[in-house]
Amino acid sequence: MELSVQHLLGIKYITEDDIQLIFETADHFKEVINRPIKKVPSLRDITIANLFFENSTRTRLSFELAEKRLSADVVNFSAASSSVKKGETLIDTVNNILSMKVDMVVMRHPNPGAGVFLSKHIDASIVNAGDGAHEHPTQALLDCYSIRERLGDVAGKKVVIVGDILHSRVALSNIFALQKLGADVKVCGPKTLIPKHIDKIGVEVELDLKKALEWCDVANMLRVQNERMDSSYFPSTREYVQQYGVNKKLLDSLSKEITVMHPGPINRGVEITSDVADSKQAIILDQVQNGVAVRMAVLYLLASKIERNEN
After folding, report:
1. Per CATH, which fold does 137-287 belong to?
2. What is the pLDDT of residues 300-311, one digit of tens each?
3. Taking the complete model, does pTM exceed 0.90, yes or no?
4. Active site residues
5. Which fold has domain 11-134+288-310?
């Protein structure tokens, strides 16, 4: 079995079979990272460049750990301290890095479609680590993998994504991945933070949080992305918390026990309270651990295609 794609640019470009293959490979790597010796020599001759044109802590560290667990050579590039500040273009930057004989590029960029643009101009395999408010495929994969681990399967499950859907690349990738795996998806949040035509991709909107939580098996709580907002989308944080924040009292009032997820970083006391984040219903730390295994799987499967192309 192999992936149908040379790059991981977005969930919309891959198939359900690709996702299942990534999950099966991640199962294997999850077993590896729980061993006393956590490294395997799978990518010993592969060089991976991490290009982060936007700040990131969790995603960057997760990819770096995944790469090192696979014994790849890793080059880290942060645009904040680079020639990009001096006006160097994306292609110039990447060509300079490729001249160092890099096989794969993991890239986060503020512009939607940056990964697709790059994949047309360079030979290396591209992994999209987030492009603007567009897609964040590995986050969606690890989220779905975590649901599969907790509930046994994704198919037939009801998942509500709550919060700032409008500015979230996590929401869009999650919607595509959940739908491909046969889940029912709703979104919930203030009207101003729901994209206008989201029903066109088969997603229902529920503005009432309590109703959404009563409906779902899983609630994926997104943070409010203040850094992407050029104006106020709701009256105050206090009002947002009252309408769309999840606390333990609300969870306990539901007629069934639901699973709570969060892609991080959490604004504790805004989307969810600490007693929810730290409760047994939350799988937030599982998501972090699964992120390394899923990213190992993605890198390993893409790298096996590179080697085949060279032979």
Report:
1. Rossmann fold (3.40.50)
2. 999 998 854 443
3. yes
4. 58-59, 86, 108, 136
5. Rossmann fold (3.40.50)
